[in-house]
Amino acid sequence: TDGDVITLIMVYTLCLCLRLSGEYCKVNLCHNGGTCVTGVGEDPFICICADGFGGDTCNLTEIGPCNPNPCKNDGSCEVISPTRRGDVFNEYICRCQPGFEGMHCQINENDCAKQPCKNGGSCRDLDGDYACQCPSPYVGKQCQLRCISLLGMEGGAIVESQISASSVHYGIMGLQRWGPELARLNNQGVVNAWTSATHDRNPWIEINMQKKMRLTGIITQGASRMGTAEYIKAFKVASSFDGNNYVTYKADGQRRDKVFVGNADNDSTKTNLFDPPIIAQYIRIIPVVCRKACTLRMELVGCELNVYSNTAGCSEPLGMKSRLISDAQLSASSTYRTWGIDTFTWHPQFARLDKAGKTNAWSPAHNNRSEWIQVDLEKTKRLTGIITQGAKDFGVVQFVSVFKVAYSNDGELWSTVKDEKTGNDQLFQGNIDNNAHKKNVFEPPFFARYVRVLPWEWHERITLRMELLGCDD
Ligand SMILES: *[C@@H]1O[C@H](CO)[C@@H](O)[C@H](O)[C@H]1NC(C)=O
Ligand SMILES: *[C@@H]1O[C@H](CO)[C@@H](O)[C@H](O)[C@H]1NC(C)=O
Ligand SMILES: *[C@@H]1O[C@H](CO)[C@@H](O)[C@H](O)[C@H]1NC(C)=O
User: Fold this and answer.
1) Best residue among 57, 58, 62 to mutate for probing ligand 1, ranked by most atoms within 8 Å of CB
2) Whose CA is closest to atom 3 on ligand 1?
3) Which atom in ligand 1 lies closest to the alpha carbon of residue 55?
4) Residue closest by Cα to atom 4 of ligand 2
5) What is the residue with the minimal CA distance to atom 8 of ligand 1?
6) Which ligand is nearest to the Cα of residue 368, counting in written order?
7) Mutation choice for ligand 3 from 336, 370, 454, CB with most ligand atoms inside 8 A
8) Who wins on pLDDT, 452 or 141?
């Protein structure tokens, strides 16, 4: 019948494919769903056992002190040799991930115990990690970076067109224009500051930074006009991402608008810190109390967002595990086939965190340092971290223990992530077993469309499952 013919063709095609490599056994000699393969090595046949079974014919159930794994929090279990039995209370020991301890790695160590937060930062203990809350102007994972660049009112990096105001005062029959573009710290001359118009009941001056920035402080200064000191004694600050919706600055945990203490004479500078820092594109200074007139010279203090970015706000999984990143977006230098069998090909499309199955990771054809796996994110994203994981190839624990990361915007010209201190390629510490997640952060983060992981050191074979962390930006 037609059905038989189709079956025959399918069987024939299957055999053709297998002739090139290993072949399945005519009679399956393997128990418990094991796959039987001939033509591999010395043995007449080999059984590839389903999870939980072992032995030459998969007739042994893998049970033991480590099966199932009694260790918590991704700890790995190790059976102890019989000679050491008796001096410990069990037949196994748990090797814990950093940040965990105890017989079963069940105790979450206090990661704040070593006081990782510098410059007065306060520490919060997390699962196998910590987070620092940094006082302004410090930023970074450990509050080790100072966000204190002068943003260019005095220096001129902020140009006239970026500065605007609610109104302008014209002095001496309209001949002197005290425009917002003059509001630059230490500006000299007879007309050397911004002053709002006398009738303006709600004055403000605004700087458009042209992109989102982190602002950690403001320096203000008054001026003297016709021998009289004019200055802003108290002011509020508002900020906006889009120039339409503004929020007035409030101190941490406060519901009322923060009123900053301003100047007290025509010439001294007064520095106020924003703690927490303001992240915004538009910043508006709103005078509340002025002496004689609302007159201002100023400078903004802060830094680029992408350089010292706080990864906490940008560490979403980008879609390896969730499959938001499609198979077509993944590629690699080469792929490995266990025993040369197509069915057991370790495609880059398998390099998804926590992927299950017999072949559940990427593995390249050769184990050397010219292999790579690539993710095309399809548009430029901000990358803040990576999670890596190894896998088992039919029982053998395999993982990448050290790797480099490279990135590109066109897929042709590549940069390797550098160690900030030494300037050399950064070597990321990878996995120590086949299953635990190892997270590394990119500090500073980088922007890229293409990301490559370059295995540098490995255990058994280069074998990788992974997730990228970051956000659109
Ligand atoms: C498993 O199979 C082998 C040979 O195929 C046999 O010698 C052994 O006794 C079997 N073991 C069990 C537990 O069935
Ligand atoms: C402005 O400040 C300078 C320097 O402190 C001072 O010498 C001067 O008298 C001040 N002028 C006025 C009008 O207050
Ligand atoms: C890696 O292995 C492949 C295949 O053996 C070889 O062609 C290539 O030159 C090797 N690269 C390095 C850097 O050793």
Assistant:
1) 57
2) 57
3) 1
4) 267
5) 59
6) 3
7) 370
8) 452
> How does pLDDT run across 94-114, given as a tens digit for each residue?
888 777 888 888 887 888 888
Q: For the domain 162-304, what is the CATH superfamily, name and number?
A: Galactose-binding domain-like (2.60.120.260)
**Tens digits of per-residue pLDDT, 450-470?**
999 999 999 999 999 999 998
Atom of ligand 2 nearest to the CA of 227: 13
Which class would CATH give 76-108? mainly beta
Please give the Cα distance from 278 to 258 (Å, whole number): 13
- Give the residue whose CA is nearest to atom 9 of ligand 3: 370
263, 231 Cβ separation under 8 angstroms: yes
The CATH 2.10.25 domain(s) of the chain lie at: 76-108
Ranges of CATH 2.60.120.260 domains, the chain:
162-304, 316-471
* Amino acid sitting at position 107: I
CA of 228 relative to ligand 2 center, distance in Å: 8
pLDDT in tens, 145-203: 888 889 999 988 999 999 999 999 998 888 899 999 999 999 999 999 999 999 999 99
Say whether 62 sits in a helix, a strand or coil: coil
67 lines ligand 1 (CB under 6 A): no
Question: Domain 316-471: which topology?
Answer: Jelly Rolls (2.60.120)
